[in-house]
């Protein structure tokens, strides 16, 4: 199968189509109709085989995740996802792998009404690069640099589950089969918090998605906003799978330092909390308040019952060149 048959077979037929795509896959470039009252928000993420996933990762999960990690970036900006383009580097044409991979990617496109508008296909070590485009009403984007002293710090979902799954895969932890299935689902099929991000446009002063671990990612908000934070480690939202599998301090360390959660961390000013609670009343899973922004630039203070918590492991978050 050649390059063009491959694109035709796996990335063209029965994929969702949007009205705002004037020209999609098949020409030299895609042409999109961008509404004049919106701003275009663009994110790119790469997954390299052997670095971000390994051979045991199902191809459907790889397809899901390359989209999910990019949509998570759009969620953190408050954007509505619209268009994706995919750069695919493959060592060979493995039709079985491509079928499952394209299913995983197509499912998430269907769910979020995104259209695959183009890409590139090359031969080489298995690598996926996806660029996600989204729209946000002009001036309403969520950024990292808006947190102010006194704002409340929230996170969505539960933290540390994907990290626990990875630790189990690497034989650093061993847990029950049922807990393993749960956390593996979180590692393989993360849910980008798209609806939450859009609902935060009017209420959050800053936001970031959690890809490298809360400790590291909240640090980016603190640096961009030139503020500090106090976090109560007992308030961190932890799943039963995590708390029943490891001791309390290990669970907190997973929640703070392990990556791949793809939850949102954001700050809400006191004056917006009423609106926030009203908006969140409609959400199935209300985000958890874990602390407060302080006026000490870049100082992240971890507390338990008001006292400093000293249980943090050395390595915080993943840095490719660190
Ligand atoms: P060119 O040679 O002009 O760069 P290509 O041959 O790379 O064009 O691609 C032909 C068409 O197929 C383009 O519209 C491109 O966007 C699309 N395309 C290529 N690879 C992919 C892919 N992996 N997924 C989706 N569309 C793709
Ligand atoms: Mg061309």
From TrEMBL:
Biological-process GO terms, alphabetical: thiamine biosynthetic process; thiamine diphosphate biosynthetic process
Molecular function GO terms recorded: ATP binding; magnesium ion binding; thiamine-phosphate kinase activity
Binding site for substrate: 52, 260, 318
UniProt: Mg(2+) 3 binding residues: 28, 73, 209
Binding positions for Mg(2+) 1 per the UniProt entry: 44-45, 120
Functional note: Catalyzes the ATP-dependent phosphorylation of thiamine-monophosphate (TMP) to form thiamine-pyrophosphate (TPP), the active form of vitamin B1.
Family, as annotated: Belongs to the thiamine-monophosphate kinase family.
Name assigned to this protein: Thiamine-monophosphate kinase
Boundaries of every PurM-like N-terminal domain copy: 26-136
HAMAP family in UniProt: TMP_kinase
Annotated spans, Disordered: 303-322
Catalysed conversion reaction: thiamine phosphate + ATP = thiamine diphosphate + ADP
Binding site for Mg(2+) 4: 28, 73
Any matching Pfam family: AIRS
Entry EC number(s): 2.7.4.16
Domain annotation PurM-like C-terminal: ranges: 148-297
Keywords: ATP-binding, Kinase, Magnesium, Metal-binding, Nucleotide-binding, Thiamine biosynthesis, Transferase
Positions with a binding annotation for Mg(2+) 5: 212
Enzyme class label: transferase
Pathway membership, UniProt: Cofactor biosynthesis; thiamine diphosphate biosynthesis; thiamine diphosphate from thiamine phosphate: step 1/1
Protein source organism: Pseudidiomarina insulisalsae
Binding site for ATP: 119-120, 144, 211
Binding-site residues for Mg(2+) 2, renumbered to this chain: 45, 73
Miscellaneous information on this protein: Reaction mechanism of ThiL seems to utilize a direct, inline transfer of the gamma-phosphate of ATP to TMP rather than a phosphorylated enzyme intermediate.
Chain's gene name: thiL
